[in-house]
Design a protein that fits this description.
The chain has 361 residues and is mostly beta strands. It has one helix at residues 50-53; strands at residues 2-3, 16-17, 23-26, 38-42, 74-79, 82-85, 90-93, 97-101, 104-107, 110-113, 116-125, 129-133, 198-206, 210-213, 272-280, 287-289, 354-359. The protein has one helix and 17 strands. The strands form two sheets. Strands 1, 2, 4, 5, 6, 8, 9, 11, 13, 15 and 17 form an eleven-stranded mixed sheet that branches. The longest helix has 4 residues, at 50-53.
Length: 361
C-alpha cells in the first residue's frame, strides 16, 4: 500500500492505493497499517442501515436485512481520499454491512464484499475492474451416503420335524420366512440459496468500464440416501419321518429399500444494484450482473439391500414319499422414493435481481 502525501486538509484522510497483485482484507488485523482507514460501527437499530432496506424507488420488501440483528452485527466503514485498486489487486470487505467513503474510486482489480456495500464518492471509474458482492450458498442437505448398512435381521428358525409334536403328526414344518431388511435413510434436502446482497452507489460522475456483480446464492446440494439393510435368511424345513417327507424351506427376506436422495435447494434470487448519479459518463461500457443463484444438485440414491437366503428343504427319511422344496431367496431392495411433493420439489435457479441507475441533476 502507498499512503500518499496528498491530503484534503491538515486533518483529512489520505489516499489508499494498493499495489498490483496485493490482497487486503477488512477489518484489518490489530496493529495493521490499514487500520487508519477503517473503523467499526455497532448496529444498534435498523435505522442505521435503512438505506439498504428499501434502496431507491424500486422498493423490494423481500430484500429487508432480516439477518441483521441490531446489537449483534457490526458495520465496517472505510474512509479515504482516493481508493485505487489496480489490475491484479484485490480488496475484500468481510462484515455484513460495509461502507466506503472517498473522493474518487478507481478499480482495475477486484473489490469483493461478503455483505451489503455502500459506496459514496464524487467519481467512480473502472479499468476492466469488478465490484462483486458475495453471499454464501445454501447449506448441503444431510448426507447419509456413508452410513453403515443397517443390521441384518436374525435368521428365522427351522421347521419342526414330522411326528415331533401333536401339531406335526402328519407333516414336517416349513422353515420360517426371512424378515425384510430395514430401509435406508433419506438424504436431506439442500437449503435454498440466499437472496443476493445490495450494492448502493451514490456518485456525482459515473465512469466507464466497470462490472457490478450481485448474484444470488446457489442452492445447497441434496444429501445422498443411505444404504438399505439386507433381508434376513429363512429357516430350513423340518425333517421327515417314516413316509412323511421333509418340510419346505422358508423364503428369504426382501432387501431393504435404498434411501431416497435429497432434493437440491433452489438458487437465491439476484441482488440489488442501486446507483444514483448526477452524470452518467459510462457510455454503456459498464456491466450489471444480478443473476439468480444456481439450483443445488439432487443427491444420489443409497444402495439397495440384498435379499436374504432361502431355507433348504428338510431332510427325508429313507421311507419318505415325495420331498419338500427349497425356499426362494428374497428379492433385492428397491430404489428409494423419488416422488415429488410440496416439500421435496426439485430446486430451481433463482430469478434476476434489480438494477436501477437514476440520474439526479
Amino acid at each position: 500500500m502507498t499512503k500518499t502525501a496528498n491530503k484534503q486538509d491538515a486533518n483529512g484522510p489520505e489516499s489508499l492505493t494498493l499495489r498490483g497483485g496485493e490482497r487486503v482484507e477488512f477489518p484489518p488485523e490489530p496493529g495493521s497499517k490499514y487500520a487508519a482507514f477503517h473503523r467499526t460501527v455497532q448496529i444498534k437499530t435498523l435505522k442505521q442501515i435503512e438505506d439498504f432496506v428499501f434502496p431507491g424507488v424500486g422498493r423490494r420488501p423481500e430484500r429487508k436485512l432480516d439477518t441483521l440483528i441490531p446489537g449483534k452485527v457490526k458495520e465496517s466503514v472505510l474512509n479515504c481520499l482516493d481508493l485505487i485498486i489496480p489490475h491484479g489487486a484485490t480488496m475484500t470487505l468481510n462484515d455484513p454491512v460495509n461502507r466506503i467513503t472517498a473522493r474518487k474510486v478507481k478499480i482495475g482489480g477486484t473489490l469483493v464484499s461478503n455483505g451489503h456495500l455502500s459506496i459514496e464518492c464524487k467519481e467512480i471509474v473502472g479499468g476492466s475492474g469488478v465490484i462483486e458482492l458475495i453471499v454464501s450458498p445454501g447449506r448441503i442437505g444431510e448426507d447419509h451416503g456413508n452410513d453403515p448398512k443397517p443390521d441384518k435381521p436374525p435368521r428365522q428358525g427351522n421347521g419342526a420335524n414330522a411326528w415331533s409334536d401333536l401339531s406335526h403328526l402328519f407333516y414336517a414344518g416349513d422353515g420360517g420366512n426371512g424378515e425384510g431388511g430395514k430401509g435406508g435413510t433419506r438424504g436431506g434436502d439442500g437449503e435454498i440459496g440466499p437472496v443476493g446482497a445490495t450494492l448502493l452507489v451514490t456518485v456525482e460522475a459515473l465512469g466507464t468500464d466497470l462490472t457490478y456483480r450481485c448474484p444470488g446464492g446457489d442452492g445447497g446440494n441434496g444429501g445422498n440416501g443411505g444404504p438399505g439393510g439386507d433381508g434376513g435368511d429363512a429357516g430350513d424345513g423340518g425333517g421327515g419321518y417314516g413316509i412323511l417327507h421333509g418340510g419346505n424351506g422358508g423364503t428369504g427376506g426382501t432387501g431393504g429399500t435404498a434411501g431416497a436422495p435429497g432434493w437440491g435447494g433452489s438458487g437465491g434470487n439476484g441482488g440489488t444494484i442501486d446507483i444514483t448519479c448526477k452524470e452518467d459518463n459510462s457510455d454503456s461500457t459498464n456491466t450489471y450482473d444480478v443473476h439468480g443463484g444456481h439450483a443445488g444438485r439432487r443427491g444420489y440414491h443409497g444402495t439397495s439391500g440384498l435379499g436374504g437366503n432361502g431355507g433348504s428343504a428338510g431332510p427325508n427319511s429313507e421311507y419318505s414319499i415325495g420331498s419338500g422344496s427349497n425356499g426362494q431367496d428374497g428379492d433385492n431392495g428397491e430404489q428409494g422414493d423419488t416422488s415429488r411433493d410440496g416439500l421435496r420439489e426439485l430446486g430451481r435457479d433463482g430469478t434476476f435481481g434489480q438494477v436501477t441507475v437514476r440520474i439526479i441533476p
